[in-house]
Amino acid sequence: MDPLSTVIALLRPHAALSKPITARGDWGVRYAAYGMPGFAMVVEGGGWLTLAAGDPVRLEAGDFVLLPVTPAFDMASRPGMACVPVEPSGQALRHGDPDGAPDFRMLGGSFRVDPANAALVSALLPGMIHVRSALHDTTGLSRVLGLILEETAGDRPGAGMILERLLEVMLIAALRHHGIDGGSRATGLLGGMRDPGVAKALQALHANVGDRWTVARLAAIACMSRSAFAARFTQTVGCAPIEYLARWRMALAKDALSRGGISLDRLAEEIGYESASAFSTAFRRHAGCPPGGFARSRRSARGRPAAARIPS
């Protein structure tokens, strides 16, 4: 599985809200930050999106936007419009002139990710992903969003599982566009995947996270010198190679501990630690609590008994 797929699988997107949004004439709305990932696609017309402390961004028909951690933002018919505060909901919305056919239509929504690894979203992805229809064919994304809207609007058997798969498809389809706004300036996993050498190293690391990786070995895979690779990796991904490896191992550990049913010895071996003791020390330093305590808190939050096989 490639790095993008492994990250998205670990995030486990779920609990989607989706609704149609229409408007006519002059209008402007303001949302407070709510932390969850948000997405939208303009179906007809155009508008202006302004993130907190950012410049207005024009959205045209066919454009797709993903906000991995949704900050406060304004959406308006034109820059400088007075914006009315609104709350996120799963209900259809109408803005501006209530009479007449709308001149703006958009599908918008939000979803949740597994809280154990929610920090991965902000650490590995840019603050805004804007797939422009003028540069990319977004018809596939449009079809996926249409299916998400259908599932969220109904109450059909299996909707939860279908939505999870659709959200994963939506995320992968959006993230694999190499022309996402931000280009080479974006850091994180997408930045690393745009660099051929760093991408090879990331693919090898994700394919065998339990291996005894060194910067020298990863540099050889990238066909670069050790120093050049370390500098390039840090520049594109946003952290040093071994730091990235440690973060990813901890993400996998949190996921395994949340699900339970695995001993510390086996988990430590699978993600590349020499012993359960070494893993426990690293986990406590990273998470601020022992593995057993983390497992109990996560499983308690999900309403299940703690796994007996995971000691403190």
From TrEMBL:
This protein's record includes keyword Transcription regulation = yes
Q: Where is the composition biased (Low complexity)?
A: 303-312
Location of region: Disordered: 291-312
Q: Which UniProt keywords apply?
A: DNA-binding, Transcription, Transcription regulation
Using the record's annotation, list all stretches that form the HTH araC/xylS-type domain: 199-297
- InterPro entries registered for this protein in UniProt: AraC_lig, AraC_XylS_family_regulators, Homeodomain-like_sf, HTH_AraC, HTH_AraC-typ_CS, RmlC_Cupin_sf
Q: Which Pfam families match?
A: Cupin_6, HTH_18
One GO molecular function term of this record is: sequence-specific DNA binding
| Cross-referenced SMART domains | HTH_ARAC
Instruction: State the protein's name.
Output: AraC family transcriptional regulator
